[in-house]
């Protein structure tokens, strides 16, 4: 009940009511209007009770020196001002503290939906084979060594090993790979990944809480719990502010015998401008970033971004567009040019559901090619396809598929395949019944702004690292294109987290940038997580501290400069507020300031802090 009442009083509507009555308390007496009860009492009750509650709660629950907080100092000043009958000063310090708390809450509020969406990905049932019969059971009842059948389009319910069948598995949820991965007997599969084509039987190796997906969920939960809320800088200083303020006030009273001067010292010593320095600068910076399509969900993240010296990138969907396109067409038959080869391959693949086949068809259609009729189409899952076109038989698939058809791989073709794979490209070999007639390579597309972005970060003394689930050759190729020299490939989500932790243990402040579900734990673990907002998964966006809504990674250097400027502004505001407080204390001791004028002086300090912060909003950082 007490907490509910406290939350109600500390909310925005009641704080605005308190502000209204505080203004009345200042204006009405100067207009010659005197009320039976000072309106500032309303402000003291509305803003003072939550302040008193916070100060007492911290004394009871906080350990050691952290029991002494800025809330305690301001509570003492408020009570002292009430004791001498200066209600305006009491209401003013309470209101400023309430305003600072609201601004900070607005900047540190985090979305909590991502973890729920991740949990929703967990399969709820699986098909167990018992005595040759398929039985659908809840996923919780599946045990290690059970044999399960997974049909095309179904989600794999546990970690396991294929004991029968061949397929292609979309495991982007775990590795972020843009292509389905071909799997055959003996290969491992992960819980939560999707079987795209052939039916497979698997032996369960990790079930329930031990599965890869549940591990992913736990990593996000653990990283979420490690994210402490932003601590007010005033509270960090409170351990010495409170004793010093009380000492100066007591000494002033004993020397001057004037209780008003002592109370004035407490009022002007209140760190209201100090309390406002961080949240106002962050609010302005968040507004500035929003105009540029950068959504910052945490003031804490903005502060930390200013200290980042290393940025780690995922590849697929981050440095690249995550979209397959035909990159190379190489014919090995003099009678067939590249356009004819593409038309043949697209005609053969037009009934295929494989992403590589679809990409070939889309490329041919976009070039206005007319496709031939495809007869007698057959697909061998995980290997390739067979089709009859214009009464000729053609095979399109991987190297193993072509060799299985007793078609020779020439040295020229082998060299071409090696070269293309070194560039991180997927290859489809096209052959007739006698020989290979060509190869078509497909590649993810590098974002055009990626290279310049990495260069600009380097000029800002910010190191760049690539962390990807893709294979080593693909990672090396794309990293070389943008200028990243440190590469870690073939990473599962937990291995990305391990790399993030390793870098942070080396006194590195690291920012992780990614877009997939598999990036969520790394985004949470890093000092700052940045997600590709428009095309990234909801889970990645929710797990991140910052989202790029336009997927424009050229905004990363802008974000770094904005964060640096925000930290500098906060430091300037803190310095200014301390100087104003120091001067006001001297004037209070000398009797030049009263509690009311003292409250106005440190109100002026608060206004200066807000004004300096507001300048961030329109500053140019490009």
Q: Helical element count?
A: 24
> How far is the first residue's CA from the last residue's CA?
50 Å
Counting copies of identical and different chains, the oligomeric state is: single chain
For the CA atoms, what is the radius of gyration? 33 Å
Strand count, sense and barrel status of the largest sheet are: 7 strands, mixed
- What structural category arises from helix and sheet content? alpha+beta
The number of strands is 22
Widest β-sheet, arrangement of strands: 10-22-21-20-11-18-19
Strand content: 15-25%
pLDDT averaged residue by residue: 80
Helix content: 40-55%
Overall structural domain count: 4
Quickly list its features.
622 residues; alpha+beta; Calcium-transporting ATPase, cytoplasmic transduction domain A; Rossmann fold; 7-stranded mixed sheet; 6-stranded antiparallel sheet; 22 strands; elongated
Describe this structure in words.
- This protein has 622 residues and is an alpha+beta fold.
- It has four domains: 2-110 and 227-285 and 562-614, no CATH class; 117-224, Calcium-transporting ATPase, cytoplasmic transduction domain A (Distorted Sandwich), CATH 2.70.150.10; 286-320 and 447-561, HAD superfamily/HAD-like (Rossmann fold, 3-Layer(aba) Sandwich); 323-445, Calcium-transporting ATPase, cytoplasmic domain N, CATH 3.40.1110.
- The chain has 24 helices and 22 strands.
- The strands form five sheets. The chain has a seven-stranded mixed sheet, with helices on both faces. The chain has a six-stranded antiparallel sheet with strand order 12-17-16-15-14-13.
- Helix 21 links the parallel strand 20 and strand 21 (528-532).
- Helix 10 (259-269) runs antiparallel to helix 23 (555-589) and helix 11 (272-291) runs parallel beside helix 24.
- It is elongated.
């Amino acid at each position: 009940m007490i907490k509910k009442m406290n939350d109600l009083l500390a909310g925005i509507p009641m704080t605005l009511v308190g502000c209204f009555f505080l203004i009345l308390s200042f204006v009405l007496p100067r207009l010659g209007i005197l009320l039976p009860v000072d309106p500032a009492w309303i402000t003291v009750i509305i803003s003072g009770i939550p302040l008193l509650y916070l100060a007492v709660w911290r004394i009871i629950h906080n350990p050691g020196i952290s029991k002494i907080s800025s809330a305690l100092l301001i509570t003492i000043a408020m009570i002292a001002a009430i004791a001498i009958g200066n209600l305006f000063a009491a209401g003013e310090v309470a209101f400023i503290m309430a305003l600072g708390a609201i601004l900070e809450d607005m900047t540190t509020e985090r979305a909590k939906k991502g973890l729920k969406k991740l949990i929703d990905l967990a399969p709820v049932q699986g098909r167990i084979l018992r005595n040759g019969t398929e039985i659908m059971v809840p996923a919780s009842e599946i045990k290690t060594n059970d044999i399960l059948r997974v049909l095309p389009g179904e989600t794999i319910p546990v970690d396991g090993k294929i004991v029968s069948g061949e397929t292609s598995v979309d495991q982007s949820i775990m590795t972020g790979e843009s292509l389905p991965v071909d799997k055959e007997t003996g290969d491992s599969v992960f819980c939560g990944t999707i079987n795209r084509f052939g039916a497979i039987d698997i032996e369960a190796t990790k079930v329930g809480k031990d599965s890869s997906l549940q591990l992913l969920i736990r990593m996000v939960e653990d990283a979420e719990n490690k994210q402490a809320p932003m601590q007010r800088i005033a509270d960090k200083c409170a351990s010495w502010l409170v004793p010093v303020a009380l000492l100066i006030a007591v000494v002033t009273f004993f020397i001057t015998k004037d209780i008003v001067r002592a109370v004035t010292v407490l009022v002007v010593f209140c760190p209201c401008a100090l309390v406002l320095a961080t949240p106002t600068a962050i609010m302005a910076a968040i507004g500035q970033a929003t105009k540029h399509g950068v959504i910052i969900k945490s003031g804490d993240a903005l502060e930390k971004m200013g200290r980042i010296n290393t940025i780690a990138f995922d590849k697929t969907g981050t440095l690249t567009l995550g979209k397959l396109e035909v990159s190379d067409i190489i014919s090995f038959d003099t009678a067939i040019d590249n356009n004819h080869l593409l038309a043949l391959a697209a005609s053969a693949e037009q009934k295929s559901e494989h992403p590589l086949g679809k990409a070939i068809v889309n490329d041919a259609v976009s070039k206005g090619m007319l496709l031939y009729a495809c007869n007698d189409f057959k697909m061998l899952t995980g290997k390739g396809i067979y089709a009859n076109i214009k009464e000729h038989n053609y095979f399109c698939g991987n190297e193993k598929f072509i060799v299985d058809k007793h078609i020779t791989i020439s040295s020229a073709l082998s060299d071409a395949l090696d070269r293309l794979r070194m560039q991180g490209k997927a290859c489809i070999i096209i052959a007739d019944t006698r020989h290979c007639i060509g190869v078509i390579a497909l590649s993810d597309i590098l974002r055009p702004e990626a290279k310049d972005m990495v260069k600009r970060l380097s000029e800002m003394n910010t190191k760049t690292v690539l962390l990807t689930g893709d294979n080593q050759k693909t990672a090396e190729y794309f990293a070389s294109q943008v200028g990243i020299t440190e590469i870690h490939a073939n990473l599962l989500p937990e291995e990305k987290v391990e790399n993030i932790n390793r870098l942070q243990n080396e006194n590195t402040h690291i920012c992780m940038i990614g877009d997939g579900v598999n990036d969520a734990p790394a985004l949470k673990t890093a000092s700052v997580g940045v997600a590709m907002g428009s095309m990234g998964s909801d889970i990645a966006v929710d797990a991140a501290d910052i989202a790029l809504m336009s997927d424009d990674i050229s905004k990363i250097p802008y974000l770094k400069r904005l964060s640096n400027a925000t930290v500098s502004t906060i430091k300037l505001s803190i310095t200014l507020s301390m100087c104003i407080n120091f001067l006001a204390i001297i004037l209070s001791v000398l009797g030049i300031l009263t509690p009311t004028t003292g409250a106005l002086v440190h109100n002026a300090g608060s206004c200066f802090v807000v004004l300096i912060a507001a300048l961030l909003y329109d500053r140019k950082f490009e």
